[in-house]
Amino acid sequence: MDVRALLAVLRKYWISVLSLTVLGAVLAGIYVMITPPTYTAQSQVFLSVQGGQTTSDLVQGSSYATTVARNYALVATTPKVLDGVIKDLNLATTAQALATHVTTSIPTNTSIINIDVVDGSAQQAADIAQSVAENLELAVAELSAVSTSVQTTVTSNIITPAIVPTSPTSPKLALTVALGLVLGAAIGVGQAVLRRTLDVTVRGEEDIAEATDHSVLGRIPFNTSISKDTLAIVNDPQSPVAEEYRRLRMNLSFMAVDSDRTPVYVVTSSVAGEGKTVTSINLAFAFAEDNLSVLLIDADLRRPMVASYLNIEGAVGLTSVLVSKARLNDVVQHLGPGRVDVLPVGTIPPNPVELIRSNAMLRLLATAAQKYDIVIIDSAPLLPVIDTTMLSTLATGTLVVAGAGRIKIQPLSTAMDNLARANATVLGVVLNMVKSHDRSGYGNGYYHYYRQDDQKNAPEKASAVVVREDAPTPPPSPRPIKRTPVLALDGFKGDIADQ
Predict the structure, then answer these.
(1) Domain 39-160 in CATH: superfamily?
(2) Fold matches, 39-160 and 205-498
(3) Where does residue 90 fall: left (phi above 0), alpha (psi -120 to 50 degrees), or beta otherwise?
(4) Nearest to residue 430, comparing CAs of 231, 209, 276?
(5) Is the CA virtual torsion 421, 422, 425, 430 positive or negative?
(6) Which residues are CB-neighbours of 24 under 8 A, at least 6 positions away?
């Protein structure tokens, strides 16, 4: 995981990371409060060698004192010294237990013995350290008594008497809290990285890249202010959501710039609830903004939603045309602004697969390609049924909507593999409902600035809504585009609208 990915993880899980960091500091503070303090007192004993007249004798004596200092440092923690300490201070303990509180050390190349005593009482720590030094003097004198064959003797002197410490050596509040902060932050970052590693939900473009090689053509943000508004591009045209739909329209236009065929786009998703229908509707009106005639077909024969979202009549529509009970011109509904015709599903059939792969569907799409500049088909999800997989082979290209936080990487990969096995042309992926912490801050800042500037220049603004036109046929396109049908049907003559 690189730095950029790590920062993205921290932005996403910053609450838990901060909470664990603060919790680490709090627990460290509680530990300091409930842990009894301990104090350390120190005394120092200097060992020297007496005897010898020449310089060589003095050097040898100093070297000898340095050597035996290690021995006497060990003696300081034995019963020979500690029993005297217990007797002098009337301590209710044993030499073995007291030895765990006493440590000795020798600075390099010296004959000085440091005696450190740790105790819960500052005064008692000082008393024990002083008593150990005094009893060590007696032990040194006794153990280094002059014999008839040795001309030198080791003596000891207390050079630093023990003093009462003024502050505890442990626990230290500042150091403990700092360690708690560091440990809490480390645990917080670790759990964030672990959660992101175990989270196989699609949330960003890097997740799309794990599921498919197809590029992301649009990143539709999730905006709570219009989360319940299906037609953001009409009712909130200056929002970041509307701008991303226009960006998606632009990307699709670039992909079809060298084609003289009418684009027929199938919009689908891996599973339900990823926003394919809302994407289809907004994309249709985005193309209509570009003065193109658009036909929006609801081909989700399992769970149609276009009529419900647009609040239009859905009793007759696609199925009525496919079974020759109505003509296309009679059942399409003209909506504004722009030039958008909507063909709802109509009656939900008992045989969706047969209708999708029927010749009637081929004729309908051929007719639509002749009459409109853009055809957008909202279809069923890919994984639950095979309707869309078959329908995608009849279209110019397929757009797969991936709902951020709604679909996992593996199901999306499976859906894309199904399209590949059917030899469908997949144009790309639309990443939908992207949360604000996954988007750049530029878009939101520009959006607020633009809306404020717009309010200054236009204090009164009518709310844009989708309306049905009274005219029986839509007005002619200001910029008609000559295109040939996307489908070549042998033996088919005439317009399905005239049947």
Answers:
(1) EIF_2_alpha (3.30.70.1130)
(2) no
(3) left
(4) 276
(5) negative
(6) 180, 181, 182, 183, 184, 185, 187
Domain boundaries, the chain: 3-35+171-198, 39-160, 205-498
Cα 145 from chain centroid (whole Å): 75
Q: pLDDT, tens digit, for every residue of 309-354? A: 999 998 899 999 999 999 999 999 999 777 899 999 999 999 899 9
Q: Are 268 and 401 in contact (CB under 8 A)?
A: yes
Q: Which CATH architecture does the domain made up of 205-498 adopt?
A: 3-Layer(aba) Sandwich (3.40)
Mapped onto helix, strand or coil, the DSSP state of residue 197 is helix
Number of neighbours of residue 87 by Cβ within 10 angstroms: 11
Question: What are the angstrom distances between the C-alpha of 194 and each of 6, 197, 211, 284, 407?
Answer: 11, 5, 20, 41, 19
Maximum CA pair distance of the chain?
137
- Return the SS3 of 175: helix
- H or E segment at 23? helix 14-34
Q: Which of 391, 395, 419 is nearest to 486 (CA)?
A: 395
DSSP annotation of 476: P
Residues 299, 353: Cα–Cα separation, whole Å: 11
254-285, pLDDT tens digit by residue? 887 556 788 999 999 999 999 999 999 999 99
The DSSP-derived string for 245-277 is HHHHHHHHHHHTTT--BPPEEEEEESSTTSSHH
pTM confidence score: 0.61
**If you count DSSP H runs as helices and E runs as strands, how many of each does the chain have, helices first?**
19, 13
